[in-house]
Amino acid sequence: MKYLLVTGGVISGIGKGIVSSSIGAIMKANGWVVTCIKIDPYLNIDAGTFSPYEHGEVYVLDDGSEVDLDLGNYERYINVTLTKDHNITTGKIYEHVAQRERRGEYLGKTVQVVPHITDAIQEWVIRVAERPVDASNRVPELCLIELGGTIGNFNIVWALKISAVFMLALCQISTVGEPKTKPTQSFNLCKAYQVSIRELRARGLQADILFCRCNSELSPHVIEKLGLFCQVPTDRVGSDI
């Protein structure tokens, strides 16, 4: 099983779900059996009680569970049928661990975030990733994991051996009309991007692919700068327009 983590920087809502779905569609077209998991940092058990004004519409799966709308993108793009277990939330994990503690599965130990919560998340991901989700009924070969929110929200699947697709928003000054790479390099000008890359590395991950959300196609000069300062090969730096 291969795992591919799709995460963003310090700005949420930059299109990680569409990027995840698109990668899944490409991999499936190349013969891979693909599955998807969405991890959200909120304490709600599921998305059923969310206000649509705050979080958008809720998507209802075949099993009746109410989940994040991104799972609907996964199902349509990759032609899979997902379950409630493919949407992990902090609340769901805490509830799962609390129930195990009540059943005495921890043998009287003090239940803590590390290792009990982190182990529960990893076990959940590995277990769900191996479920067949398409008409072929084959065990998936690639699991796309989208980490909702921002990079600093959730310390979770970092212990898994995974590759990372990292997304950041590339600012464009309207009067100049040119994407600026300084936010990635300079803490003084805009620390957001530098913090994003630093947070990712602090969790033991180096981005393998870098998508930049921008208004126009990146020039070769900008791609070269991003590759240099983010330590990503230039052929793995792309525009997400």
From TrEMBL:
<dbReference type="GO" id="GO:0005737">
    <property type="term" value="C:cytoplasm"/>
</dbReference>
<dbReference type="GO" id="GO:0097268">
    <property type="term" value="C:cytoophidium"/>
</dbReference>
<dbReference type="Pfam" id="PF06418">
    <property type="entry name" value="CTP_synth_N"/>
</dbReference>
<dbReference type="GO" id="GO:0042802">
    <property type="term" value="F:identical protein binding"/>
</dbReference>
<dbReference type="InterPro" id="IPR027417">
    <property type="entry name" value="P-loop_NTPase"/>
</dbReference>
<protein>
    <recommendedName>
        <fullName>CTP synthase N-terminal domain-containing protein</fullName>
    </recommendedName>
</protein>
<dbReference type="GO" id="GO:0003883">
    <property type="term" value="F:CTP synthase activity"/>
</dbReference>
<feature type="domain" description="CTP synthase N-terminal">
    <location>
        <begin position="2"/>
        <end position="237"/>
    </location>
</feature>
<dbReference type="GO" id="GO:0019856">
    <property type="term" value="P:pyrimidine nucleobase biosynthetic process"/>
</dbReference>
<dbReference type="InterPro" id="IPR004468">
    <property type="entry name" value="CTP_synthase"/>
</dbReference>
<dbReference type="GO" id="GO:0006241">
    <property type="term" value="P:CTP biosynthetic process"/>
</dbReference>
<dbReference type="InterPro" id="IPR017456">
    <property type="entry name" value="CTP_synthase_N"/>
</dbReference>
